[in-house]
Amino acid sequence: MERLQKVIAHAGIASRRKAEEYILAGRVKVNGQVANELGVKVSAKDLIEVDDVPIYQEEPVHYLFYKPRGVISAVSDDKGRKVVTDYFPHVAERIYPVGRLDYDTSGLLLLTNNGNFAQRLTHPKHQVDKRYVAKLKGVANQKNLYPLTKGMKIEGHKLAPARYEIISVDAKAETSVVALTIHEGRNHQVKNMFQAVGLPVQKLKREGYGELTLGNLRPGEYRKLSRHEVSQLLQQSK
Questions:
Q1: Reduced to 3 states, what is the DSSP secondary structure of residue 128?
Q2: Residue pLDDT, tens place only, 110-157
Q3: CA distances from residue 124 to 41, 186, 194 in whole angstroms, order as listed
Q4: Which helix (H) or strand (E) holds 235?
Q5: Whether 129 is catalytic
Q6: Strand, coil or helix: 115
Q7: Which part of the chain is the RNA-binding S4 domain (predicted)?
Q8: I want to staple 66 with a disulfide (CB 3.0 to 4.6 A). Which of 31, 42, 153, 217 is the partner?
C-alpha cells in the first residue's frame, strides 16, 4: 500500500505536492469515490482517477546496476552531469535509485519504481549488509582498524559496529585494500570511517548488497532482479 499522492506522482500526472493539492480540491477518485484526504493509501488493484481520467499504475520493477565512477545517483542533474537513469534508455518505467553512491564511488546500486521496496531498504531501522572494498592511503592493520568494530561516533552520530577484512597491504607504497561491511547508509559514511582511523580512501567500490553481488556485470551494465532476490532482500531488511 502506498500513499495516494505518491502513486499519482509516480504515474507522472503531477509532482507529489501538486498531487496533494488535487486531492484536497476533490479532483481525485479512488474506486469511484472522491478521496479528499491526504492519509488515503491505495494498492495496485485500486482504480484511481484524476479529473475523471484513470491513471496508469506501473508494474513494479527492480534492477541491479553497476554504477561507474563519475555518475550521479539521481534521475536528473541541474549541472548536466551524467545520472544513473541515463543508462536505462529502453526502460519505460520511471525508476529511481534506492539510496545513493557518491559521485566518485562505483559499484552495486539498486533502482526501482517500487516505493515500498525502496523505503524498506533505506529506512534506518532496517538492516541489510552492504560490502565495500576500499583502496586506502596507509598501512592497515588490526590495531588501526579496531575502532571500526566497536561503533564509532562520527559527526555526532553513533554508528553500528562494522566488519572488516584486510585484502592486501603494500608497505612500500603505503597503501592497503580493505573490505568493510556495514548496514547503515549515511552520507560519505565509509569514507568518514576510514578517515577517522587515519586511512584516507583513494578509491571506493560497493561490491555487495545483502546476498547480491555484481557478478559478471561491467560498469554501466544492469540486470533485473528475480522475484526470489526481491523477496530475499525484503526478508533481510526485517
A1: coil
A2: 999 887 788 889 877 778 999 999 999 999 999 999 999 998 998 888
A3: 23, 9, 21
A4: helix 227-236
A5: no
A6: helix
A7: 2-65
A8: 217
Which helix (H) or strand (E) covers residue 148, if one does? Answer: none
What string of DSSP letters covers 171-223?
Answer: TTTTEEEEEEEES---TTHHHHHHHHTT--EEEEEEEEETTEE-TT--TT-EE
Out of 102, 104, 129, 170, pick the active-site residue.
102
Domains annotated on the chain, with CATH: 2-54 (3.10.290.10), 62-125+212-236 (3.30.70.580), 130-209 (3.30.70.1560)
| Gap between the Cα atoms of 87 and 65, Å rounded | 9
pLDDT tens column, 1-15: 889 998 888 776 777
Q: Give Dmax (Cα) for the chain.
A: 72
**Which three cell numbers mark 98?**
534506492
59 pLDDT band, cuts 50/70/90, is confident
